[in-house]
Amino acid sequence: QVQLVESGGGLVQAGGSLRLSCAASGRTVDIYTMGWFRQGPGKEREFVARIRWNSGTTDHADTVKGRFTISRDNAKNTIYLQMNSLIPEDTAVYYCAGSRGIVSRREVSYDYWGQGTQVTVSS
Fold first, then answer.
1. Using one digit for the tens of pLDDT, what is the confidence trace for 102-114?
2. pLDDT tens for residues 62-91?
3. Is 116 helix (H, G, I), strand (E, B) or coil?
4. Which 3 state secondary structure label does DSSP give 123?
5. What's residue 103's pLDDT?
6. How many whole angstroms from its chain centre is CA 23?
7. φ/ψ bin of 10: left (φ > 0), alpha (ψ from -120 to 50), beta (otherwise)
8. What band does 16 get if pLDDT is binned at 50, 70 and 90?
9. Does pLDDT of 101 surpass 90?
């Protein structure tokens, strides 16, 4: 099993920045891909970004491309989501997810999930 714990959420003004972290523990050797998803008020959970654990190859949703950057630190078993130029529409609970294989952007393809961290962007 793999456990994922997110941190770094909070309240920020529009135009500001936050960095989310997700620490993985347990059988981290099973992880092939990790990603970030978010669920805003009254919305379905949506894909934000993903990264392949070994190669570092990344993929970002169009809604965050150019503003958010996913990265990883293999030595710390941690991934990050650097969020810049935040807008109120970015307000959501952000979830870290992990998969044992090559996955698409669909959340059903992920095996492990964190509890989420709240990000609130004020206008």
1. 777 999 999 999 9
2. 999 999 999 999 999 999 999 999 999 999
3. coil
4. coil
5. 77
6. 11
7. left
8. very high
9. no
> Backbone dihedral region of 74: left (phi > 0), alpha (psi from -120 to 50 degrees) or beta?
alpha
How far apart are the two ends of the chain, measured CA to CA in Å?
A: 40
Residue 97's nearest CA partner among 60, 50, 44 is 50
Amino acid sitting at position 79:
I
Residue 59 to residues 36, 43, 48, 62, 118, Cα–Cα distance (Å): 10, 22, 9, 9, 22
For residue 50, pLDDT beyond 90: yes
User: Residue 104: which of 61, 41, 40, 55 has the closest Cα?
Assistant: 61
Is the alpha carbon torsion for 53, 55, 59, 65 positive or negative?
Answer: positive
Reading the block at residue 77, the tokens are 């078993």
Q: Which residue has the tokens 């998969």?
A: 99
Length of the chain: 123
